[in-house]
Write a structure and sequence with these properties.
21% strand
Length: 78
């Protein structure tokens, strides 16, 4: 996903929504490619900031899946 796609998806979200960002288990070694942006409505939460604006959950592919996928692509092409 590129930044333009992320911005387009976030336009439908409440501006005060809580953003859940996946942790990068290998800080500095590799990054996880964003795979999906999911909106969770505020009505799903009993109280707190999420109950005011909902949640935006960013999810990603695990780094090892990306690496193994890249290895397979290189093998198929080479």
């Amino acid at each position: 996903m590129i930044v333009a796609e992320l911005i387009k998806l976030l336009q439908a979200c409440h501006p005060q929504a809580v953003v859940l960002i996946p942790a990068d288990p290998s800080m500095g070694q590799a990054c996880e490619k964003l795979a999906d942006v999911a909106r969770i409505d505020a009505s799903q939460f009993p109280d707190g900031p999420a109950a005011q604006g909902g949640v935006v959950r960013l999810s990603s592919f695990p780094v090892d899946l990306l690496i193994s996928g890249l290895d397979l692509a290189e093998q198929a092409g080479g």
